[in-house]
Design a protein that fits this description.
Metallo-beta-lactamase, Chain A, 13 strands, binds zinc ion
Length: about 280
């Protein structure tokens, strides 16, 4: 059951669903207008979010900002029915999806071609059932670099950031409420045969994120993570980057070096992260 929660004075969000790959959808409520972050993975998802907003007396969405182009963040656009903001790169990728057929056969064919993955295909089937009335709507406000949106009494900064998961993603920062929306930027590249992080992209991503000081860091398929927990994640990634460089991507040596630094065995999380970096080093 999805919950609708208040995070700060100005920010509310709806919790994600892993089976259908529904990401967090959030709203930043201004005095003049509301900015919704991501459109949800279907019309049903978007409609549920808008209902929740109304029930809480927050009014309606006025704008949507997309963190990136993946289906689960954009298929609710038509239902949201308001202008959307995205990076040029996100719009370019969405444009490629415009003509896609979403039948079982077409999904299977794209998996065969390596441009779709079973996890997304299964989630699409579960979210939509047999009736896949998927109609993509392109964002009308496009930017590169950064963009500031004034909602009246609260500003939002959109910042394009490169990362392994989805090139041309946008981070969204609300300085007044000290919240940074990460989208999926912190996740690995899950569209390659071997899931991976690269040293270059992750270093650049962490350097950009470090420019923003927040109390909460919102992971689209996770939670609104408090600062101290997020700092631990960053430490893990920075350490993994260091050992990947030192061991030139050789996994056994990376494990040994990492154990030496932390002076204990690796957690499942750390083990997985090192494997992703080793995969990235072979790209
Ligand atoms: Zn994604």
């Amino acid at each position: 059951m999805q919950q609708f929660k208040q995070l700060t004075d100005r920010i509310w969000y709806q919790t994600p669903v892993s089976e259908t790959d529904r990401p967090i959808v959030a709203v930043i409520t201004g005095d003049e207008r509301n900015l919704v972050i991501d459109a949800g993975n279907s019309s049903r998802h978007a409609a549920l979010f808008v209902d929740e907003m109304e029930q809480q007396g927050l009014g309606k969405p006025d704008l949507v900002a997309l963190t990136h182009w993946h289906w689960d963040h954009v298929f609710g656009m038509k239902q949201m029915a308001v202008p959307a903001i995205a990076t040029h790169r996100t719009v370019d990728e969405m444009r490629k999806m415009m003509d896609y057929d979403w039948s079982d056969e077409a999904l299977a064919e794209r998996i065969r071609q390596g441009i779709e993955i079973p996890f997304c295909a299964d989630a699409i089937k579960l979210e939509f059932g047999a009736n896949r009335d998927i109609e993509l709507v392109l964002p009308t406000i496009r930017f590169a670099g950064q963009l500031e949106v004034d909602l009246g009494g609260v500003q939002c900064l959109l910042r394009q950031v490169e990362n392994d998961h989805s090139p041309g993603s946008a981070l969204i920062y609300v300085p007044q409420d000290r919240v940074l929306f990460l989208g999926d930027a912190m996740y690995a590249d899950i569209f390659s045969a071997k899931w991976n992080y690269t040293v270059e992209q992750t270093t650049r991503l962490l350097d950009v994120i470090a420019e923003y000081d927040a109390d909460y860091y919102v992971w689209s398929h996770g939670e609104a993570m408090p600062k101290d927990a997020f700092e631990q994640e960053v430490r893990l990634l920075r350490q993994a980057i260091e050992v990947t460089k030192q061991a030139a991507g050789k996994i056994s040596e990376m494990r040994r070096l990492y154990r030496e630094v932390v002076e204990r065995d690796l957690t499942t999380d750390e083990e997985e992260t090192l494997v992703f970096f080793a995969n990235g080093a072979k790209k």
